[in-house]
Design goal:
The protein has about 200 residues and is of the alpha+beta class. It has one helix and eleven strands. It is elongated, with a radius of gyration of 30 Å. A hairpin with a 4-residue loop joins strand 7 and strand 8.
């Protein structure tokens, strides 16, 4: 059976994309086998509607948080860092965003850029989505910033978070190396002074 519907758009509806749903419900309640509960059946379909007027796509990346989880001894164990961010459709049309991540600064290990996979295929006008993705093999030492970049329909947005990650082995070795260099330099200076005194 085919049932016709009429959809009326209010005169003050804002331009851009709007989403709704059409639900058809069988008002009859059928008894379920072996139960005192009744079953009421229905079907639904999503409705997309675009109101004429200026189309203003907009996309923002908000509240970026990078959490580095690296082994205390470099090159041992796993490095499953995480990046979390909020994707926000600030415009009036639906978007299909693509998101990537870039690392800048002085870092050790890991790729400097990657594509993020855990991204919704559709972002409705005004919608905010909080996303978290695990990053296996992320840089395990250094300092700098992580930039999350999103793009869709010729609009772009980005957000950053700074980080400082120094494994304890590096933190111990750096002062020792600095002290060794200083002692070696003092020894060479004293030797040079003795040689000059003999001359």
């Amino acid at each position: 059976m085919t049932v016709g519907i009429t959809l009326t758009v209010p005169r003050d509806a804002s331009p851009g994309d709007h989403v709704g749903a059409l639900v058809a419900v069988d008002t009859r309640v059928q008894p379920a086998d072996g139960s005192h509960l009744g079953v009421q059946r229905g079907v639904g379909a999503r409705i997309y509607l675009r109101v004429e007027g200026p189309q203003q796509p907009g996309l923002a990346v908000e509240d970026v948080r990078f959490t580095a989880r690296s082994p205390q001894i470099p090159w041992t164990g796993t490095r499953d860092s995480t990046v979390a961010y909020t994707l926000h459709n600030t415009g009036n049309v639906k978007l299909a965003p693509e998101v990537s991540l870039r690392v800048g600064g002085m870092v050790v290990g890991g790729p400097g850029e990657r594509r993020l996979a855990n991204v919704p295929a559709e972002l409705l006008p005004g919608q905010k989505v909080r996303l978290t993705e695990t990053w296996a093999g992320a840089p395990f030492a250094g300092w700098g910033q992580v930039t999350v970049m999103a793009s869709a329909d010729a609009v772009r947005g980005s957000g950053t978070d700074g980080f400082l990650e120094v494994p304890w082995l590096f933190a111990v070795c750096l002062p020792l190396l600095a002290a060794s260099w200083w002692l070696l330099r003092r020894r060479n200076d004293a030797r040079a002074a003795r040689t000059a005194g003999r001359g």
